[in-house]
Every structure is written in structure tokens, then in C-alpha cells.
Backbone:
């Protein structure tokens, strides 16, 4: 009986480190290089007039390759990094399509939706990196989640 109890304890002490090594503390949704992002803009200012109505978008500096700000509704904004996830090492910068709804990777022809950064087409499985936003009219805050 004592041997059986000792065997269980030994097995527990051997397996526990392997299980703990499999867990991660980092954010699995961060595929692109991490860059601290935390800024505010006043949407009422003339330089941000494109964000004054839903479906308006604007390119701003920041993030890994720049940030696309998109006004989804009157109270919801989306902030996406322009770093294409089709080939992260290539560091290609997505462009906004003429229709204003798609984001295009000039290096791989991959496409993402501007409303949430989800993949539409191409040889890519990762969405674009999304930053958190907080809307306290007329101030929009964009930051790392």
C-alpha cells in the first residue's frame, strides 16, 4: 500500500512540471511585434473629420506599421494595426481598398475586413491585430488591451 501511494506521489511530481510548462502567460493574440500604444484623439477636430460619421476611417501613426481607425457605429470604433499577418517577418503594411471595407496586403494579396480585422481571403489564417478603444465623446482612446 505504501509503495502505491509513493508511486502516485512520484508520478504527480514528475507530471506537474510538464503540465505547467504547457501553460502560457503571454497573450496568444499578439502575433506582430509588441509596441506600446496609448493615445487619445478629439474626433471633433478638423484633422479627424473622417471619423465623425459611421464607416469613416483614418490612418494614423503608431503600432507596428501604423494604425487604421474605423468608426463602426456612432458609439463603436475599431483600431487595427496595419502590420499584415500573412507574412509577419516581411512587415508589409495593409492598404485600404477603394470600397473602404477591405484591407489589402500588397505583398501577398490577402484581404481582411476593416470592421474587425478578420480574414476574408488569401493564404493567411491570422486576423489583423486589434487595439482596444474607449469612446468618451468627443475623445477616442486607443490602447493595448
Residues:
Amino acid at each position: 500500500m505504501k509503495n502505491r501511494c509513493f508511486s502516485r506521489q512520484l508520478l504527480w511530481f514528475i507530471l506537474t512540471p510538464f503540465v505547467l510548462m504547457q501553460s502560457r502567460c503571454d497573450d496568444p493574440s499578439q502575433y506582430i511585434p509588441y509596441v506600446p500604444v496609448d493615445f487619445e484623439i478629439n474626433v471633433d477636430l478638423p484633422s479627424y473629420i473622417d471619423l465623425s460619421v459611421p464607416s469613416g476611417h483614418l490612418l494614423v501613426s503608431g503600432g507596428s506599421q501604423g494604425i487604421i481607425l474605423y468608426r463602426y457605429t456612432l458609439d463603436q470604433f475599431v483600431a487595427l494595426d496595419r502590420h499584415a499577418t500573412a507574412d509577419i517577418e516581411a512587415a508589409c503594411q495593409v492598404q485600404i481598398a477603394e470600397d473602404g471595407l477591405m484591407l489589402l496586403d500588397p505583398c501577398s494579396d490577402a484581404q481582411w475586413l476593416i470592421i474587425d480585422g478578420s480574414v476574408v481571403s488569401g493564404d493567411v489564417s491570422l486576423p489583423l491585430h486589434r487595439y482596444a478603444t474607449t469612446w468618451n465623446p468627443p475623445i477616442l482612446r486607443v490602447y493595448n488591451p
